[in-house]
Amino acid sequence: MQFEVWAPQAGSAVLRTAGGRLPMERDPRRAGWWTAEAEAADGDRYGFSLDDGPVLPDPRSRRQPDGPDGESAVVDQDAYTWRTAWAGRGLPGAVLYELHVGTFTEAGTFDAAAERLGHLVGLGITHVSVMPVCPFPGTHGWGYEGVSLWAVHEPYGGPGGLKRFVDTAHGLGLAVVLDVVHNHLGPSGNHLPAFGPYFTDTHHTPWGSAVNLDAPGSDEVRAYLLGSALAWLRDYRLDGLRLDAVHALADGRALTFLEELSTAVDALASELGRPLGLIAESDLCDPRTTTPRTEGGIGLHAQWNDDFHHALHTALTGESQGYYADFATAPLAALAKTMTKAFFHNGTYSSFRGRVHGRPVDATRTPAHRFVGYAQTHDQIGNRALGDRLAAGLSPGLQACAAALVLTGPFVPMLFMGEEWGARTPWQFFTDHTDEELARAVRDGRRREFAAHGWAEEDIPDPQDPATRARSCLDWSEPEREPHARLYAWYRELIALRHALPDLSDPDLASVRTAYDETARWIVCRRGDLRIAVNLSGEPAAIPLGAGRHRAGGGRVLAAWEPAEAPGADGVLHLPAESCVVLADD
After folding, report:
1. Which residue in 174, 233, 374, 491 could disulfide with 414, CB within 3.0 to 4.6 Å?
2. Where is this region: Disordered (predicted)?
3. Is the bond leading into 193 cis (omega within 30 degrees of zero)?
4. What is the pTM of this model?
């Protein structure tokens, strides 16, 4: 087997295996690369020593059995026998479900999560969006402080566990998207700086020195990230990647890393004969993120739409702190704008940022499935002081209204695990740092952050306390009892309608129409021959839909949270408090 490592600044390199130490040779064809041949089989441990230094894990390690600081292990990718022939599943028409392996079940493993995938099939989900699975110190964590970007977290089940999970999902007809983090690595267990200029002080980020995408040596760093992305898609048969915080990728080159990545992924999709998708998390409100490369864009396939979330959240909760301030003045107007124009900030002033932000979306040329819409995500729950979900403060009726706006809206809908039954378990920030000083710094920093916003430090959960993670695990007995069972049935009904009615998956963003009353707190969205009416008020609403459109005896109620009748001859819909309805024109 050939072992290789990029270490351009090293004067010598040694391969360490169970058989001993083997000096490596410079590769005459590739500057900075070292190679060696040695016998090795699946599971064999190895590492590299540079300039007689300590044995370090392989930057391209496929497995870290003893964690990020341990030796790497050989993985025979052909050893697994795939059971499912999979043709793939694209994003148009999709319903996504964000899932954290470590808290989806109490066991916190791929195999345990796979046993629950039947629940998602019954719900009507098409794509499972798995949060990061790269190795990180300890057992439990969110995964956004991962290192070893080619490997799989061992406590979850390692490479074999991920393959079994994907295979099971595909067997059930579910596509799998994996969250990957290219904008930073974790503060602990990151050995890349010992090998080469993976980071640069040319740019600085909230996490310190930036990943080197444009300084000297960046060609190999970009190849490292590209290779990792393609390996996930090829070796694990994944259907797409969710790219964390792409706005934090400091990249001043004419051909950006994201363009290179989208080009490479499209080429791989063509090679494999199945669709592959890249979904960006971006704070830029820039439609060029998902504009095709042939039209001057970056060419990613979709992006999360936080503006839609923020407008919906303020309309539901009345919260106005932080970035919600931009949406809280007139939340229903903000919601209507996002449902028709995608971004609220499309060249408008942002009080939160203190400047103009965003760029308009051309709704006539941009399909709605370029955007992912949601009422909750891991970020929007877990970054709250107590990790409280919407269910902690909203009635089942308002949760049902949120579901109606997400699941019948123009964007690709996404749920956060447990949302579908109004889970009462929080999803809190938890860590398992093995470095006590780092653990203390994270705990104290988080408490200081929320103390500045009026929280008592003792009320902020300790991320290192095992109980914090335990509280965040889903309670799978909840969907079987009220009020959860009713809400779960509502989600199933709405998703079934989305799959059955072409108007609800119509990508024509320009055809979406909205009407609303800020004071009365109702909003109506028109999707083809369908109207979705939502009353967020605590009082019944009389909503004028237009005489003649719904004749007396005409129009049909396709789904309703509370009993409601189609409008009479006057075209007025009478909707109970905190309720919603899906209507079809006759």
Report:
1. 374
2. 44-74
3. no
4. 0.96
